[in-house]
Amino acid sequence: MIGQRIGRYEVRALIGKGGMGDVYRARDTSLDREVALKVLPPALQHDRERRTRIEREAKTVAALNHPNVVTLHAVEEIDGVFFLVMELVDGHTLDAEIPEDGLPLGRFFELALPLTGALAAAHARGITHRDIKAQNVMIDGEGRVKVLDFGLAQSPEPPAAHTDQTMTIDSETSREGVVVGTAAYMSPEQAEGKPVDPRSDVFSLGVLLYEMITGRRPFAGETRLSTLTSVLRDQPRPLVDFRADLPRHLGRILRRCLEKDPGLRYETARSVLYDLEILRDEDDTDLLLLAGRLAAD
After folding, report:
1. Which of 92, 255, 276, 296 is most buried as measured by Cβ atoms within 10 A of its Cβ?
2. Comparison of pLDDT for 151 and 202, the residue scoring more
3. Is 131 tagged catalytic?
4. How far apart are CA 11 and CA 191, in angstroms?
5. Own/partner pairs, 26-29, CB within 8 angstroms, 24+ separation
6. Cβ neighbours around 106 below 10 Å, total
């Protein structure tokens, strides 16, 4: 498709591939702007199941209208090609931002708060993302966080029964007994193929926040199966094992996100955001008090 024109869109480069479609950089010649086209591969253009999934992703993204969620411009079908037209996020994924020993605390809050806020907005509309991970979070050229890829999202209105047939990890489905998501970021209930709700996203968010602040994922294995086993059985190492400079309440917040039992976690990302904002404000106050004491000395 590169170098071709679909309607008013000039396709310029392939920027990503996935089970839900290929993503291209393109120019909208009518509005003279760069956009991202999420296109079903040719072999799947007439696949009713895949079209239903990508249409649901479009409706999910359109419903959010949040500054930290990628913007949907249009759903198009031109010359037999079905695709989404989305905001082009020029930048890098969150995993490229995380250093080996974790982010400085100030930078952690700069990224964690908008990320959690975007997820809170989804939960407020009854939407469970189901694939929160570092590769699905972009940081644009101006430093803004953008949450991407709602292809696995579960909305309040369940899909028709015929849409959920694929039974592999990273496939899109809602049926009980089917494992969906990315192994290292899955909640225990996802790993066991059980029904999920926003508390599953809270667990995945906890995994990502842990990775951001320590540079390591809390659950790991050499294979998908061993990683899933770690998610189900292992307890994350305390943050103090990695860094002594972190506020102890951050460890408490992450422990609650990463509870194996969904009933012990935060109900939604809104509550996580509230506690993170309080912790950020307390940390800022402590820094100001310390600066004042040093100046007085």
Report:
1. 276
2. 202
3. yes
4. 38
5. 28/73, 28/85
6. 11
- Give the integer Cα–Cα distance in Å for 134 and 212: 9
Return d(Cα 272, Cα 117) in angstroms, integer.
9
Sequential DSSP letters for 40-71: --GGGTT-HHHHHHHHHHHHHHHHH--TTBPP
Task: Indicate whether this model's pTM tops 0.85.
Answer: no
Distance CA 15, CA 297 (A): 55
> Which one of 22, 47, 79, 131 is the catalytic residue?
131
Q: Is 122 helix (H, G, I), strand (E, B) or coil?
A: helix
3-state secondary structure of 256: helix
Q: Is 34 helix (H, G, I), strand (E, B) or coil?
A: strand
Cα–Cα distance between 283 and 286 in angstroms, integer? 5
**Structural contact between residues 169 and 181, judged by C-beta atoms closer than 8 angstroms:** yes
Which of these ranges, 3-12, 39-48, 138-147, has the smallest mean pLDDT?
Answer: 39-48
